[in-house]
């Protein structure tokens, strides 16, 4: 004991920081490393079957087709909407803006189940859902409920950084058509690509939509290999294909940006907003906006409310109190853990200069780019080995269960791996807007780094912490893949019960917990948007 105390006393700030960073980095990389290690094991019978029958190759092609179509269509819809909402006078602008963002409050798997009751009543939708292009509706669901990522990013960029270029072009009598294709679209390309990556991350992380609509993608094959076949070796090998796809996409995005930088300059001027130039343009713009809002929010909400009201008796099958309690339990604990760790990590990283800071920042945002199914697999592989290692010692003190894999602790760790990057990137952005002299002054006055964090950092970042916590809450409440894959036996949340009942064609039972998820997420999205207008919160 004395030796440990002596060792701790000998540690200076730099050594403590180095140890802490090493631990965090190790935990961030654990799921990825576990999948990589297991993927090099011997081939299984199931993997050989998939390879010899060509099903694995078909899964790769289906995955590439899916993300290409979803990425392309979501980019088109999101960017066109952002252009209309930024540069033209739209009646009820604030209301429409919120309605265009609210689809992010509807989990894609909920939308998939809901639309199974809708499209039969609408001939055009039925045609879309039965078409090969839309892959039996899977593409439609992902596009209509993930396009807000592109819309939010593009609108933010267009409203801040292109005003001067556009006004200069107008003084040269350039047409709106010419300005759009020669200035707006080329300059916005890196932003669009970055936002589309978020859409693709979410698409690859989901397995429920492709399962429901019968699409054999790589995430679906991982789910089949892991849960249906009990073959984690094959699941790990298939996960490598997804990671390779993600690596290529991220590398391509980095190359597309090259040395371009986009800063939150306060000197940027507001865009010049004008009337829609023609009656035809007026009708077309409002029709497009109304169509998107109807398909992505009004129709599914109406259907779920109708199902919940008409089938109130089915609510008795659900223990709503338990579902809400379990959902809030893992979510709140995870948020507290992520916020606490990210506060320390961002404070440390901000003291680092040069290329090391960039490398660390890249490592800390790695988690979100790993699809949830791959992340769940890696988390499980690590902690099952950890539990097997400590089990003999726990047994001696009367604990006869796996400590982590049989409890919600594994879900909390998975949430940390997945969503830490959101908190870190947002806090780093908030730090960049704070005058560095504040931190330097604290050090000059004799405050150590720990004291500075509590007395300076946290008070300054308080509003950002609230905004980040809300964003994390929305993402975690919607999350299905991690919770479903890692939950202990008989542990139920809102998302898992929606999946269970809807997957068994009991949509009427799934409607009520779906509405609770949407209500929670939608109210918080509205709060964030209202706060953003008042300068109270930061954007995701």
Write up this protein:
By secondary structure, the protein is mainly alpha-helical. It folds into two domains: 37-102 and 148-208 and 218-284, MetI-like fold, CATH 1.10.3720; 316-540, MetI-like fold. Helices cover 76% and strands 0% of the residues. It has helices at residues 2-10, 13-39, 45-52, 55-87, 93-101, 108-118, 123-129, 138-146, 148-161, 163-171, 176-205, 208-212, 218-228, 232-257, 279-310, 320-349, 355-364, 366-369, 372-395, 409-432, 436-444, 449-460, 462-478, 481-486, 494-503, 507-533. The chain is globular. Residues 4-12, 262-267 and 536-540 have low confidence and may be disordered.
Topology:
Blueprint: H1 2-10, H2 13-39, H3 45-52, H4 55-87, H5 93-101, H6 108-118, H7 123-129, H8 138-146, H9 148-161, H10 163-171, H11 176-205, H12 208-212, H13 218-228, H14 232-257, H15 279-310, H16 320-349, H17 355-364, H18 366-369, H19 372-395, H20 409-432, H21 436-444, H22 449-460, H23 462-478, H24 481-486, H25 494-503, H26 507-533
Helix pairs in contact: 2-14, 2-19, 4-8, 4-9, 4-11, 6-8, 6-15, 9-11, 10-11, 11-14, 13-14, 14-19, 15-26, 16-20, 16-23, 19-20, 20-23, 21-22, 22-23, 23-26, 25-26
């Amino acid at each position: 004991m004395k030796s440990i105390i002596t060792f701790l006393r000998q540690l200076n700030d730099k050594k403590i920081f180095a140890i802490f960073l090493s631990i965090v980095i190790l935990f961030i990389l654990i799921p990825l490393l576990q999948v990589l290690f297991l993927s090099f094991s011997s081939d299984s019978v199931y993997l050989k079957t998939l390879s010899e029958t060509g099903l694995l190759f078909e899964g790769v092609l289906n995955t590439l087709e899916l993300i290409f179509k979803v990425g392309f269509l979501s980019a088109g819809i999101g960017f066109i909407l952002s252009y209309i909402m930024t540069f033209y006078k739209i009646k009820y602008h604030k209301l429409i803006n919120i309605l265009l963002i609210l689809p992010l409050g509807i989990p894609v798997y909920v939308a998939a189940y809901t639309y199974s009751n809708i499209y039969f009543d609408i001939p055009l939708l039925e045609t879309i859902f039965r078409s090969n292009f839309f892959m039996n509706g899977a593409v439609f669901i992902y596009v209509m409920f993930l396009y807000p990522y592109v819309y939010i990013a593009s609108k933010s960029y267009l409203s801040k950084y292109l005003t001067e270029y556009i006004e200069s072009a107008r003084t040269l009598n350039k047409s709106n058509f010419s300005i759009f294709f020669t200035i707006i679209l080329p300059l916005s390309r890196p932003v669009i690509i970055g936002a589309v990556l978020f859409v693709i991350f979410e698409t690859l992380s989901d397995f429920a939509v492709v399962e429901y609509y019968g699409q054999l993608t790589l995430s679906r094959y991982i789910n089949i290999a892991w849960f249906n076949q009990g073959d984690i070796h094959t699941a790990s090998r298939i996960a490598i294909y997804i990671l390779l796809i993600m690596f290529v996409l991220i590398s391509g995005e980095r190359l597309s940006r090259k040395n371009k930088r986009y800063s939150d300059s306060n000197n940027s001027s507001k865009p010049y907003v004008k009337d829609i130039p023609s009656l035809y343009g007026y009708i077309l713009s409002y029709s497009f906006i109304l169509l998107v809002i109807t398909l992505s929010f009004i129709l599914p909400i109406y259907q779920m409310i109708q199902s919940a009201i008409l089938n109130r008796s089915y609510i008795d099958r659900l223990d709503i109190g338990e579902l809400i309690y379990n959902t809030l339990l893992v979510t709140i604990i995870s948020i507290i853990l992520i916020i606490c760790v990210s506060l320390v990590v961002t404070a440390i990283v901000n003291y680092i200069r040069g290329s090391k800071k960039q490398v660390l920042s890249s490592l800390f945002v790695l988690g979100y780019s790993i699809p949830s199914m791959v992340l769940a697999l890696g988390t499980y592989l690590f902690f099952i080995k950890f539990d097997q290692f400590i089990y003999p010692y726990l047994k001696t003190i009367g604990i006869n269960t796996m400590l982590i894999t049989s409890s919600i602790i594994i879900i909390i760790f998975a949430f940390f791996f997945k969503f830490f990057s959101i908190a870190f990137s947002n806090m780093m952005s908030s730090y960049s807007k704070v005058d560095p002299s504040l931190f330097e002054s604290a050090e000059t006055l004799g405050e150590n780094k720990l004291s500075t964090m509590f007395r300076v950092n946290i008070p300054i970042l308080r509003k950002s912490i609230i905004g980040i916590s809300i964003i994390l809450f929305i993402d975690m409440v919607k999350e299905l893949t991690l919770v479903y894959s890692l939950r202990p036996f008989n542990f139920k949340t809102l998302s898992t019960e929606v999946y269970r009942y809807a997957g068994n064609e009991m949509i009427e039972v799934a409607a009520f917990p779906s509405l609770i998820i949407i209500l929670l997420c939608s109210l918080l999205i509205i709060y964030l948007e209202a706060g953003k207008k008042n300068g109270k919160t930061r954007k995701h």
